[in-house]
Amino acid sequence: RCEWAQLSREISVWERRLDATPGGTRHHDIAIETCLLPLQACLDDAPRNSLDDLDDANEMIAGYVARHTEAPEDPVHAVLAACAHMLVADNCRAEFWPDSEKSRSWRHMAQHYLKAEAILSRFDPVAYMSPLLASAYYELALGMPDGAARLKPAFEDWIDLDPSNPAIYAVHMPQLFKDGPVNLSTFKSEVAKAEARTAETLGKGGYALCALPALADCPELREHVDAQRLATALTDLARLSGTQADVNWAAATLLKEGTLVTGARREVYRDAFDALVRRHLGVIYPRLWHIPLDQIRANLADTFERTGAPKITENPDFPVYSAKAA
């Protein structure tokens, strides 16, 4: 019990500070996922012949709920208990089960979502200033019959509490376009609001955080993207992030976007790439690029030739490569 109480306190600290990995993944999200791994493993190992195959998973939920019951005012334990129910609910979807179990699976799924809702209903994400609660409410909206009406306010609470989190846009943007033709005005409105949200922390970076997941899901939107705004947004993310991982990701993204457009827009991305490499790139992490290492070297060599920056050299002591002469 003491170990779980201590873990809850630590997660709350990470959440309050929005601590993150170099790639932007929030420590509190990693912690919640890790706490749920035993339940996830149980579900992964369960056969799919009868809903009775989930009995062990249902028993495991009881442990998360018991810890919530022992500390009913603790939002972290509430999130864990609610997410445990939603994890099992997601595995009750009818498409995972034989025809003879489909109606029963839908009932079980609904029951788990309702139990998750009952747990979360005592906690207001904004009052608690909790992105974890907000993300749980968003997940709940995805599983409820009236989820379409819940999704927008759930997203707005979540993103307002953590406006620079790329994972939120990665989850939400595909939801906006999954049920029909892409609404261009919706896209333009969302990227403008995202840009405004990060004005005081990441400059225009919000434009990229919002636009890129939409482009991944709906490539036809690319012709409507403002290349200069996206290039500036990526540069701001690199400039203000403080990590070379983010600089690598931004550079790789600029390079990729430049290959997907033509004319003046390609030049915008090329110029931004050159400036970012010269001013901010100190170490190369090949795994963060979308191309092989020899192609990374070739593109950097082109930049160095245009800008006069030092030639690239490899650092033999580390599994990364130095972008500037030692």
Which secondary structure elements does this structure contain, and how are they paired or packed?
Elements lengths: L1 H16 L9 H9 L1 H9 L9 H16 L4 H16 L11 H19 L4 H4 L2 H13 L3 H15 L4 H12 L6 H14 L7 H13 L9 H15 L2 H16 L3 H18 L2 E2 L8 H15 L5 E2 L6 E2 L4
Antiparallel strand pairs: 1-3, 2-3
Helix pairs in contact: 1-2, 3-4, 4-5, 5-6, 5-8, 6-8, 8-9, 10-12, 11-12, 12-13, 13-14, 13-15, 14-15, 15-16
Give the overall average pLDDT. 91
Number of distinct helices = 16
Largest sheet: 3 strands, antiparallel
Strand residues, percent: under 5%
Model description:
Helix 3 (37-45) runs antiparallel to helix 4 (55-70) and helix 10 (166-177) crosses helix 12 (205-217). This protein has helices at residues 2-17, 27-35, 37-45, 55-70, 75-90, 102-120, 125-128, 131-143, 147-161, 166-177, 184-197, 205-217, 227-241, 244-259, 263-280, 293-307, and strands spanning 283-284, 313-314, 321-322. The model is unreliable at 312-326 (pLDDT under 50). With 326 residues, the protein is mainly α. Helices cover 67% and strands 2% of the residues. It is elongated. It has a three-stranded antiparallel beta sheet with strand order 1-3-2. The protein is built from 16 helices and three strands.
